[in-house]
Each structure stands twice: as structure tokens, then as C-alpha cells.
Design brief:
Number of helices: 5
Structural class: alpha+beta
Helix content: 25-40%
Strand order of the largest sheet: 1-2-3-5-6-7-8-9-10-15-16-17-18-19-20-21
CATH topology of the largest domain: Porin
Order of helices and strands: HHHHEEEEEEEEEEHEEEEEEEEEEE
Distance between the termini: 106 Å
CATH architecture of the largest domain: Beta Barrel
Number of domains: 2
């Protein structure tokens, strides 16, 4: 039922109840009219009843009727009171319900207000969210663009890194550091002690499927290509380092037996230090055809051509060496041998005797090679002009870092020349025999070298022809060792012997550590130990002397390692020179 209808019913009930109550209590009501008279009228009334009996009976009936009516009214009033109580209860329930409805309505109102507030906040939040969404969308676009740029850059970097890794994978780094202690002892001369350093670093590898290449740097004086040592001296100055190798090799996949190399490269043919110092890297070209064979005895056959360029001239003819080598690999049981034959012709070698001040590292010059003017410093270090009979003391002069021990002469114009020509015929037989111990193979190298263009008779100490002595054009050598230096804790011990005549090879390029480049008897004892896979320690004893001190430009009279005793170890030609003992203690770290 609606709340307004309930209020109308309530008002109607209240009005009816009030009227009924007023009628019940009014003086004109039958109860009040029929009430008995006061007591002081009783005697009087009795008299009247007695007198008038009929009238009294009528009155009593009226009173009774009145009483019954009053009782009925009282019952009705009581009933009305009960109904009023019930109405009051209903009204109270109605009031309670109304209050509850009001409270619910208030709560509903509050809820509506809260909902409105929440809705407003939600609207604001929605607005903020929409704004943030727009910003996020804008940021997302920016981030997407940035990620795209990052992806592009990452992809580029990955390609570059992949290319770099591929490039790095095709190359390998090589090099070593050697610390050397060196001592010289020779009768009648003061001892000499020095410390030396050698550093070499480079890389080589596959340029593509058909080409290989490499670059290497090394220490050493610029005027001496036969050594990469730097002596620890000169008041802590910086040591010279320069390009030691730079080469490219063509080795096609389709013809793996062929390789062609050009540039400044390590020796590509079998050789010993007789024909070229180990630190010297020749320049020019080399073509090699190598065939692996499956024969029971012959395992490989190799033939190659050699073209070495050692002096280019802008005003005259160039100087170069042409030749080739044939080699094989033979195997029978535990024995493996590598025989080879080298032929190398040196064309116009006189250029070696007429090199510039920079080439020889000279620090003084002169007029006509006799009158000094200077000194004048020049770039780099070097041994200067080599000594010899009638050879110039000032540049242009003789290039021979370890002494000119070949026979020479000077023409009427004052120009020096080699007495002999140089055409090497070099036979090498390198043998290895496996023993019952894998770390102790037996190694034996035999060599015979003959200069086919040497003069038939040598020159004496004054430059005269010695007709009673034959051509000084041969070298004999042997190197015997036991062991190897391949793996950790490997040990190798060996002995080498050499007899090398004066004009057997060009002195300018021969071994720099022996007593002299040529015209010597040389013994060498060595012991090597490999304590780590990349470290080798060793000791070498060079024990040598001049072979024939009667010959021109021999090391006992010229080009001595000491300036004491006027640079000589003998007082007159023909004397036997005391042995020079040279000890080397090496520690080599390889990477």
C-alpha cells in the first residue's frame, strides 16, 4: 500500500476514535442520565414506591435496561480499546516501517549520492584514462618507432658482428716475445755481455675461398733485416718496430695443389740459415705446385719457382734473384726424409755494395768515400758501412749487417764489386726416425751447398789472387738432435757442425749469430725445454772461428764483434784465430 494511503487511513481512525470517546464521556449520555439520585433522596423515593408500586417497577426496568446498555457500551468500549491497541501497534509498526523506509531512503539517497560521486570520479577516471590512453598510444607509436630503429640498428650490428666474427674466424693471431741474455768470450779480448728483446706480432688467414694473406710487425733495427733483436741500451729509448711481413697467397679451391705468393713473406722453400738468416723475410714472388701421392715410398712431390727482388733502380738495371726448388717427401716405416735441391741465381749483386746511408744505417758521410763530413744523424738504427779491403767508409757503401766476408775489389772509378758471382746449388736431406718414445725422435739434417758462379781462385788479404788455392765456393753442414719441442715438457738436445767457405753464399744475408757470415768453422750446441705449451726455454753455445785468415775480408782482420785490439783477433794473416764462444739464454713466449 502506498505511504500516503496509509497516512489517510491513520487520520480517519484517529478521528473516529476521538469522536466515540467524546460521546462516551458526555453528561447527556444515557449512563449519566440513568445514574441513581443522591442518597439523601432515598426515603423520599421509597415513600413514592410504596405509594405507587407500578411506577417503581417501571423505573427498575429502566434502570436495568440502562445498566445493560452501559455494560454493552463498556464491552464495546473495551473492544474499541483493544482495537485501538491493535491500531496503535499497527501504527507503531507503520511508523517503524516508515522510519525504516526513511532510513533506507536516506541510505538509498546516500548511495545515489555516493554512486553519483563514484560515477563522477569514474567519469573523471575515464577521462584521465582516455587521456593516458591517448598518451600511451602516442608513446606506443614512439616506442614502436624506437623499437623499429633499435631492431634495424641491432640487425645492422648483428650483421656487422656476424661479419666481424666471420672475419675473425678466418684469421689467426701469431707472434712471440723473446728475452735473451747473451755473452761473448774470446781469448785476448774483453768479455761482452748484453740483454736483448725480440717482439713479433701478426695475423694471417683466409681472405676468401681462393686467397690467403697476412701481416706481421717485428722489432729490430731498420738497417739490419737479418735480426729482430733490440739490445736493452740507449738510455731506455723506444725500440724500433716495423713491417716484417705482408703477403697474399692464391691457393684456388679447384686446384689445391697450386699456390702463388707475392709480397714480403717467410721462406716458402726448404732451407737452412746458410743461405738466409731465420729473421730475414725475402721479398718478391713464389709459385708452388705440390702433389700429395699415395705411393708406398713417395708421399709428396713439390716443384716451385722463386723470384726475389732486392734492389729496384730508377736510373739503372734492377737487382733480383731467380731460381727454383724441387723437393720430395719419402717415408719407409719409422723413417721420413725430405730431400730437396735449390737453384738460385743472384743477378747484379753489386748493388749490395753501394747502398744508401738509410739502408746501411750510417750516421756519417764523406766526399769520394774518403774525406768525412758530418756526422749527420739519419732515421733508424743500423750497423753502418761494412768494413773490408779498400771498401768505402761512407755511404753509398757496403750493406752487410754482420760483416762483409766475401771477396771484393774496387775498380779504377772507386766503385766496389763482388769478385765472384752467386748461383746457389743447395742440396738438403732432412731425416727423422721415430723411436720407441714418441717424444724422442732422432733428427738428422745434411746439407751441401755450392756456388756455381764463384771464381776458381780466391784473393789474399791484400787483394791478390791465390793461385795455389782452389775456389772457395762450398759449404758442408750437419745437424743432429734427439727429441722435439711440440708438446708440454718436450725436450730437445742437439749439435750442429758447419764448414762454410768464403764465397759459398752472399755474406749480407747469411746467419747473423754464427762467428761470421762466411769463411768459418762453426760448432753449435743447443738444449731446448718446453715447460708450457706456449713457452720454450733454451741455451745455445756457438763455438766458431775463421776458416782461413789468409783470405781477403776475413772476420779475424775485419768486421770483428769487438773494437778492441784494432778490431782484430789475430796479428797477421794466416794465423789460426782463437774460438769465439757465444752463449745465448732464451725464454720465448708464443701467442
Amino acid at each position: 500500500m502506498p505511504l500516503a494511503a496509509k497516512f489517510r487511513i491513520l487520520i480517519l481512525v484517529l478521528t473516529t476514535t476521538a469522536a466515540f470517546a467524546q460521546n462516551a464521556e458526555s453528561p447527556s449520555s444515557p449512563a449519566q442520565t440513568s445514574s441513581p439520585p443522591p442518597a439523601h433522596h432515598s426515603v423520599h423515593t421509597s415513600n413514592k414506591i410504596g405509594k405507587k408500586g407500578t411506577a417503581s417497577t417501571a423505573v427498575q426496568q429502566d434502570v436495568k435496561a440502562l445498566r445493560e446498555m452501559v455494560a454493552a457500551q463498556q464491552e464495546q468500549l473495551e473492544l474499541q480499546r483493544n482495537e485501538m491497541g491493535e491500531l496503535k501497534g499497527q501504527i507503531q509498526q507503520l511508523l517503524d516501517a516508515t522510519q525504516q523506509n526513511n532510513a533506507a531512503a536516506q541510505r538509498a539517497q546516500n548511495s545515489v549520492e555516493q554512486a553519483q560521486t563514484t560515477a563522477s570520479q569514474a567519469q573523471q577516471s575515464a577521462t584521465d584514462a582516455e587521456r593516458l590512453a591517448q598518451q600511451a598510444s602516442s608513446k606506443e607509436a614512439e616506442v614502436t618507432a624506437a623499437l623499429a630503429a633499435v631492431d634495424t640498428r641491432t640487425s645492422t650490428q648483428n650483421r656487422e658482428l656476424s661479419a666481424l666474427q666471420s672475419l675473425a674466424g678466418r684469421f689467426r693471431f701469431t707472434g712471440d716475445i723473446r728475452i735473451r741474455g747473451e755473452d761473448y768470450f774470446q781469448h785476448a779480448l774483453p768479455d761482452r755481455n748484453r740483454a736483448r728483446l725480440r717482439v713479433r706480432f701478426g695475423f694471417d688467414g683466409q681472405l676468401n675461398e681462393d686467397f690467403m694473406g697476412g701481416i706481421a710487425l717485428a722489432t729490430g733495427t731498420l738497417g739490419d733485416p737479418t735480426t729482430t733483436n733490440e739490445t736493452l741500451t740507449n738510455v731506455f729509448d723506444r725500440k724500433t718496430i716495423a713491417l716484417d711481413r705482408g703477403w697474399i697467397t692464391y691457393n684456388p679451391v679447384a686446384h689445391h695443389w697450386l699456390s702463388v705468393t707475392g709480397g714480403k713473406f717467410a721462406y716458402l722453400w726448404q732451407r737452412t740459415s746458410v743461405t738466409g738468416d731465420p729473421d730475414l723475410n725475402p721479398e718478391g714472388f713464389d709459385e708452388k705446385a705440390s702433389f700429395n701421392l699415395n705411393g708406398p715410398f713417395l708421399k709428396n712431390f713439390t716443384v716451385q719457382g722463386i723470384e726475389l727482388l732486392y734492389n729496384e733502380s730508377s736510373v739503372g738495371q734492377d737487382s733480383y734473384a731467380l731460381g727454383g726448388q724441387i723437393s720430395m717427401k719419402l717415408q719407409a716405416g719409422p723413417w721420413t726424409a725430405t730431400p730437396s735441391f735449390l737453384s738460385l741465381k743472384w743477378n747484379r749483386p753489386d748493388a749490395i755494395l753501394q747502398q744508401s746511408a738509410f739502408a746501411v744505417g750510417a750516421t756519417t758521410t764523406g766526399v769520394g768515400g774518403t774525406t768525412p763530413i758530418g756526422p749527420f744523424p739519419v732515421p733508424g738504427e743500423g750497423p753502418g758501412c761494412a768494413k773490408g779491403l779498400s771498401l768505402p767508409s761512407f755511404a753509398p757503401c757496403v750493406f752487410a749487417p754482420n760483416g762483409m766476408t766475401n771477396a771484393t775489389f774496387v775498380d779504377s772509378k772507386g766503385v766496389p764489386h763482388f769478385y765472384s758471382g752467386y748461383n746457389y746449388a743447395d742440396f738438403i736431406l732432412n731425416n727423422q726416425v721415430k723411436t720407441g718414445w714418441a717424444r724422442l725422435p732422432v733428427n738428422l739434417l745434411l746439407e751441401f751447398e755450392d756456388n756455381l758462379d764463384a771464381e776458381h781462385h780466391p784473393l789474399d788479404a791484400k787483394g791478390n789472387v791465390l793461385t795455389n788455392l782452389g775456389s772457395q765456393n762450398k759449404e758442408y753442414g750437419a745437424d743432429f738432435s734427439l727429441g722435439q719441442t711440440k708438446n708440454r715438457n718436450d725436450v730437445q738436445i742437439g749439435y750442429a757442425w758447419l764448414r762454410q767457405e768464403q764465397d759459398s753464399v752472399l755474406a749480407s744475408f747469411a746467419e747473423s749469430d754464427q762467428r761470421a757470415p762466411t769463411n768459418i768453422i762453426q760448432n753449435r750446441y743447443y738444449l731446448w725445454w718446453k715447460p708450457r705449451t706456449n713457452t720454450v726455454a733454451g741455451i745455445t753455445w756457438w763455438h766458431g772461428r775463421v776458416l782461413n785468415s789468409n783470405l781477403e775480408n776475413n772476420a779475424a782482420l775485419f768486421n770483428n764483434w769487438s773494437t778492441a785490439n784494432k778490431g782484430a783477433t789475430i796479428s797477421a794473416p794466416g794465423q789460426v784465430e782463437p774460438y769465439l764462444n757465444r752463449f745465448q739464454f732464451d725464454l720465448i713466449y708464443t701467442f
